[in-house]
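ugh ok so i messed up the first submission bc i forgot one of the chains. this is the corrected input, ALL of the components this time, i swear. 247 residues overall. if the numbers dont match what u have on ur side tell me asap before i send this to the collaborators (the ones from the other lab, u know who)
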Amino acid sequence: MQISYFEDEKKVVVKIVGELDESASNVAKQELDYILNSTNKKALVFDMARMSFMDSTGIGVLIGRYKIAKKLGIALYVKNLSKTVDKLFYMSGLYEIMTKLENDNEI
Amino acid sequence: MKFNNEMTLTVKALSQNEAFARSVASAFFAQLNPTVEQLEDFKTAVSEAVTNSVVHAYEKSGGTIELWAGLTDNAIYIKIKDRGVGIDDVSKAMQPFLTTGQERSGMGFTVMQAFTDKLEVESAKGYTCVSMVKYANVEN
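and heres the new structure output, hopefully the right one now
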């Protein structure tokens, strides 16, 4: 798994590439915490177009990051999920803490 | 039950084997021509069971995880076993959001249940076996 990010005037976009599972979870937490703590944007978009796999360990990682984002006043968004990961998001209530985007113009 | 094909895989209970184990299991299921979504759902369910064994079964002592899978004409049967500490109360462990902490979601069994057609969990001291069945419908 690899994480990259870029910022525009309004938001930081974080791309998760590869497989977000238990073996990748510690690195994912560290890198996402760094991005959250170093940005001055108030919106963060997870772009999952190139995430090839995620399981419930990934849910735990994202819920943990939400707690940090909330303290920092950063709103979370997500886009480009596979059908399976979309179901995981519904099942776990992740859509109650981050908004699904159909395109970037929404924020 | 008579199977057309079977496989077994034994791996050390290590994080870096989670991707290997779920990939092997889903590649085997691919012989039945499931839809992309069925294949991904199955792979996710296997990952949950294997991750449980890696994270919870062995503490520091280490051990192995055994996967067995059998194919019928339209379904995969899979058993994922470890010889670790066992689950004290299976029905309690299967409740959503019950977690041992460390930012884990507590959704593992809920995901297995939702992403397969049948789930059974047997456990005693020194043994846990998760059995799942997933049907494949050929994509039209």
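quick check: Chain A has three helices and six strands. that seems consistent at least. Residues 22-38 of chain A form the longest helix (17 residues).
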